[in-house]
Amino acid sequence: MTMELTWHGHSTWHVDVDGTTFLIDPFFQNPMTELSAEDVETPDFVLLTHGHADHIADAGAFTDATVVGVPELTTYIEEEVGFESSIGMNIGGTVECGDAFVTMHRADHTNGLNTDYEYSLGLPIGFVISDEEPTRESDPDATTFYHAGDTGLMSEMKDVIGPYLEPDAAALPVGDHFTMGPTQAAIATEWLGVDHLLPMHYDTFPPVEIDTDDLVSEVAASEADAEVQLLDGDETFTLE
User: Metallo-beta-lactamase domain spans which residues (predicted)?
Assistant: First the structure.
């Protein structure tokens, strides 16, 4: 099955799995997209990796969708943003969302939100989206996409996500400063064993501006057997 992956800049992705649609970390106030949140059709599911403003800022435009995240974050989003439907899940869990399966894994990052309300927003995470339920038995026909969220390099990529969840493509943060930079992202690509690296979380604001040639060189210097897909904002990559 094919999977349509559209990058709207920063960490914002629209994913279509056989007609089931996901919007991950909606933040359209970034220079890589020509769209506003109002231009985007409401997806079936909004997936949130953590509560930093550059990942949830435009969630309120999609309150007719079902929001998915850790329970602490989905509680905040329901009560303060206005979603009526949510799936609170946690690290290691898999839930069926329409025609896809969503597995949650942790990210090495922080989580917080400046608000007048006292909320614990839980742990930062990433999502693995697949058209087949992940099992211990490898499925060569499955199509699987890993959105790592905001993370540094972590050994679970080598020990768990790569060998057991078997992503075909990974959207990894590469902007450095707040997340991995090109060198650690290249190592992550190698550890995950993906065919495609889709860089994200870069060139949004000065601290995360990079030279993408450095990323390509680092991946080439690693033992990764992956193509670096440098997408323009609002460009779609078809994963088959």
Answer: 9-201
User: How far is Cα 185 from Cα 178, in angstroms, rounded to an integer?
Assistant: 13
pLDDT tens-digit series, residues 3-26: 999 999 999 999 999 999 999 999
Handedness of CA 168, 68, 70, 10 (dihedral sign): positive
Q: What is the pLDDT of residue 118?
A: 58
CA dihedral 169, 176, 210, 231 (to 10 degrees): 20
Domain CATH for 145 = 3.60.15.10
Q: What's the pLDDT at 120?
A: 72
Could you tell me the residue range of the domain that residue 31 belongs to?
A: 3-231
Residue 240 covered by a domain: no
| C-alpha 52, offset from chain centre | 14
Q: What angle do CA 74, 71, 184 make, to 5 degrees?
A: 90
CB neighbourhood size of 118 (10 A): 5
Q: How many domains are contained in the chain?
A: 1
Could you give the 3-state DSSP secondary structure of residue 8? Answer: coil
**Amino acid, res. 52:** H
pTM here is: 0.97
